[in-house]
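Take a record:
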Amino acid sequence: MSQMTTPADLFVHELQDVYFAERTLTKVLPKLADEVNDEELTEAFRHHLDETRQHVANLEQVFAGLGVSARGAKCPGIEGITEEHDMFMQENDPSDEVRDMFVTGAAARTEHYEIAAYTGLVGMARSLGDRNAQELLEENLKQEKKALEKVESISTRLLKETAKA
């Protein structure tokens, strides 16, 4: 393990973390889209998959601008959220209704994680004076916030529908 000595070192490390998370999500989102029953939720996952692929491309541009090869560093945060999902599904055999509600919660947790990561990265890019990186990271952050709004909206609707039943 090499010593991290500069803010730029930390910036690269945090980029690697979120890069790992985004690449993981490109594999997870199609599974979630197939797993859920709610049509709007399925479509939201498919739409966010397209955005996530663009997030990966934006991160690769940031790496290139830094002259660093794009690679991920294991991200325990995203792995934990994914593991929690898998354990819940295996241990509980949820009904369609319960599965959709659980998955919206897992999706919201994921978006909060990504929003926190991108908020920090935008601040670091700004403090390092890297305007190009800042703009690319702000684009990802903006889409993550919109994805969270969409998931929260779907979650609210699902909860209302459940209460009426």
